[in-house]
Specification:
single chain, mainly alpha, Arc Repressor Mutant, subunit A, 2 strands, elongated
Amino acid sequence: FPFPQKFFHDLLQNAFPQAEATNLFDREVMTWRIMKDLPRLATRPEFAAISNYLRGERTELRAYELARRIAHVFDQYLVFRPKMILDWDTGEGNDWQPILWRQLQQAAPGQHQAALGLGLIDALRRDRAPVPERVSIFGISTLPPHERSNQNCSGLTRKTQATTSC
């Protein structure tokens, strides 16, 4: 039996097979993409604190460590703060984090976990997501909030015979 997160990931892949670009938002990949973008973005006034941090000795190591930490935070935002990420996608926020996020998502707009999760809920409601005939989901309390949401569960149970703790 797959773990719940794997199950919902597979549902996403089946509902949106064209979403190959989601690996651009894997933590490790984001780290290198952020590291590449930081020097250029650090010249903007919103990035003054980052620019100051990157000055001094071992600049490349500092850039890598910072990029790794930022990628980790963005990864957590995708899981636990998807609405904020979706707001950033639409232009909200003028601090360095939303600006950096919008730079990252330009490579694959709408292809990250937060947007695809919202699309999955819509596809489940409209009966456009292929789901197995029968589903049993255990360990639902370990799922991120947006995956264990009533919207996901009700959309799923409307389309298939499901045993869940929703």
